[in-house]
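So, could you explain this one?
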Amino acid sequence: MRQWIARNPLQLLLWSALALALAYPNLGRSGTIWHPERLVSLGVSVMFFMHGLALPARELWHGVRDWRLHIVIQLCTFAVFPLLGFAILVGGGAILDTPVRLGFFVLCATSSTIATAVALTGQANGRVGLALFNASLSSVLGVVLTPLLAGLVAAQAGLTISWLPTIEQILLRVLLPLALGQTLRFMWGSGHTKLSRYTALVDYASIALTVFNALCDSVSQGAFSHSGAGELVMITLTASGLFWLIVFGLKLLCRTFGVNQADQIAVVFCGSQKSIANGLPIAKIIFAGSANLGLMILPLVIYHQFQLIYSSLLVNGFIKTAATDSAASAR
């Protein structure tokens, strides 16, 4: 049990936040004596500062030559995924509530992870350089494309986005801290590694607090009153199906065009991963004040759990395939 907690601290925090918010919604709702919404705002800014400090931007210049694979990965992240999310938003009314469907679109418009995608690629003996380039590029593009895509479809859910305040918040709480962190990284030289090692800790605390505050607000305002176990099951099945659809699609595409296994591994992990650290704060900014924010973030929270579980299965599968191929070639 201790080993599982050590390997999966964010999963434990997210499920704990969900359970605590459902049991004691007044504890973390906005406007209470400890004002969690202010801590969330501060946490978002600190988190993106740390991401800027940890982001290896120079890697973007070292891997440009593999532009075909880059296009495949980025199109999957910011075109194929959003199209699937839009299909869920428009056509999923029979099985999912509108806020949940909008949440799936936000999930689909979110950038890829960096640390997780790179780590999984390395564990599966894939090309780490390709994964690092695309995960870094995706993170940078997501700061602009995620709020843009989510804002464009908000009308489908009956929401009106006040663009000027939203853009101001994105600039102040996301882009500015990210730029400051990146600037300090260049000025500090190798010294940045001492501080950037705490990026994961800041992520965990900020994400857990954001989820807890959003869920408490939604529960307090009755957003979950019409949602039951059936809705949660449908969110789970949809998130799981979405993950495997992307994975099998990318594998098929790579095999069709003869992409070697090391590159295929990087393509699959970068193309299927979604960053809760990037998507959650942006959703909080765009849909600030919405009573349904807790429902909107559930798809991203649940998808995050599944991508960690399923990706470990993929790593084992890639390793076994490589071993089988090696044994076959040795005969």
In short: The chain has one domain: 32-320. The chain has a mean pLDDT of 87. The radius of gyration is 20 Å. The longest helix spans residues 293-330.
